[in-house]
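User: I'm putting together notes for a lab meeting next week and I want to include a structural view of one of the chains we've been expressing. I don't have a solved structure, so I'd like a prediction I can at least talk through. The sequence is below, exactly as it appears in our construct file.
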Amino acid sequence: MKTTMRTLIISVFLLLMIGCSNLNHSYVEADIKTYKAATPNLLTLYSSVVDEFERELKFNTIKTWTIRIEEALKHEDLADLRAKFVKTEIPE
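Assistant: Thanks for the context. Below is the predicted structure for the 92-residue chain, given as C-alpha cells.
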C-alpha cells in the first residue's frame, strides 16, 4: 500500500511538472528515443524479477515514463513527435 501511494504521488508530481514547464522539442524527442532503447531491457528485467518490490519498481518506472511522454505529446507544438512514440505494453 505504501509503495502504491508513493508511486501515485510521484506520478502526480511529474505530471504537474510537465504541465507547468515549457516543453523543449529536443528534450521530448530525446526522451522518446531513450524510452525506445531502455524499455525492452526494463521489460526483460521485469519479467525475470521474483521479488515483488523490485517487480513493482520496474513496472512503475515504465508506467510513469509512459505517462510523462504521453502528457508531453498533448502539446500542439510537439505534434510531429507523436508518430515517433510507440507505447510499450506492460504485462501485469
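A couple of points you could mention at the meeting. The helical segments are 2-20, 25-48, 52-72. The chain has a mean pLDDT of 79.

User: Perfect, that's what I needed.
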